[in-house]
What we know:
The protein is mostly helical. It is built from 26 helices and four strands. It has helices spanning 19-28, 32-43, 57-63, 67-75, 91-97, 101-109, 124-130, 134-142, 165-168, 172-180, 207-213, 217-225, 232-242, 249-257, 265-277, 280-288, 296-304, 307-315, 321-331, 334-341, 349-359, 363-371, 386-392, 396-404, 407-412, 429-436, and strands spanning 83-84, 89-90, 189-190, 204-205. Mean pLDDT is 79; it is low at 1-11, 153-159, 396-430 and 433-443.
Amino acid sequence: MSDYRDDYDDYELSESATIHEKLYFAIEKRRWGELRRLIREGAKEDLGHYDYKDYPLMFDIIAAGASDTACYWLDRGYPVNARGGRAGITLAHAAAAHDQPDVLLKLIEKGSEINAEDNEGHTPLWEASMYGNIRCARILLDAGVNPDGFEEASEGDEYPAHNTPLSVAKYENIVRLLLGRGASLGINCYSSYIDNPGLGDDDYVSPLSLAAHEGRGGTVEALLEAGADPEFCDGQPLRLLAGSDKYSKWIMRELLKAGAKVAGQSGLESLKAASAAGNLEALRDLLEAGAAPAPEALTIAAKKGKFACAAYLLKKNIGDPLAAIRAAAKAGNEDILFYILGRTPEKGCLGAALHGAIEGARFPLIRELMALGAKPDCRDERGLTPLAKLYELDRRRAIFSCLRHSPEEYAGKWSNGFGRRDLPDDDEPELWLSIIQISEPTR
């Protein structure tokens, strides 16, 4: 096919264009009169021609909103169960996704398989629910489709790996419609596409957890009214809410009112999720609601670079400052590191920072800490000195090659397998020499 798609707004096809190029161009330009003319002139068979996304042009007609044209050709024998695209969707999927209720009604009239699944297991009802098209969702439910979107799993299955229409419904009106037609609260879905520090090792999420993660307050309310469990999987809805960038105080109140527990392990994990996500408001709300202070929360905030949460927890004396200092140094979060150092008079702070910097190979930071007075003979909780830790991290060959050999001899070491990964480009032998002068190497 020619390259007219790249600039079709300003480009007109030549008379030498193929018939399917002309069809596609008319659809893209919304030139329905021209489309009808082409079809009258014998282009009917080309409606099955595949566009550049592997869809027959009939799918483009539906996506463009030309419901009259689509229904016209369905009445004249166009295959109602035709599939297209890499996902293998049907015309019913396309009509449901693009909010074309007239086309959907025509497909039902012509006997389309309206409960058919595409290659990813999604049904037309899933598409209508995902894109918020309530007219199409209602038509499909009236026609008798499964409100859970598929046939092979039921509420009796402990963890069906399927995204149901209820789990992806973005709008409260569709959620209430699905619940009213018998959609199950007990069918969960894969969590692999969810980015949330509160998820932990959970492989599945409930519709309520997903709604809390996405900050959909109306959906949360509807699901709780229908009996969704706020303590699913040890408080997963609260954890995902605390770790979400769409945190809502109102949703927090609704979950707590419905029985979500902040005391015990559930509250601790939610606090850690809020710290990792940098949700200061969630952190405050959880503590005010009675969550027990999580000692790891400060360390997590320092490691993840969440300054506001780290400062708040430090002010509240929650967590171990030395562990947080070490975590911040290892991660290279210098703003948090020096903030905590400036407010923590405890002995060993610089030593903890030095060990963390060594663990994270933060060489400029190591030099800065030693310039501030960090002692190269300080020991960690296992009694290791910085040099011993360098040995443990297997950097000793590069260090001693650098110190004990001339530049010419050191250059020859590359052929013996001592790659540059063992010695950073910005490293200085004097730094290691200052450590060795005080610390005995341990083998």
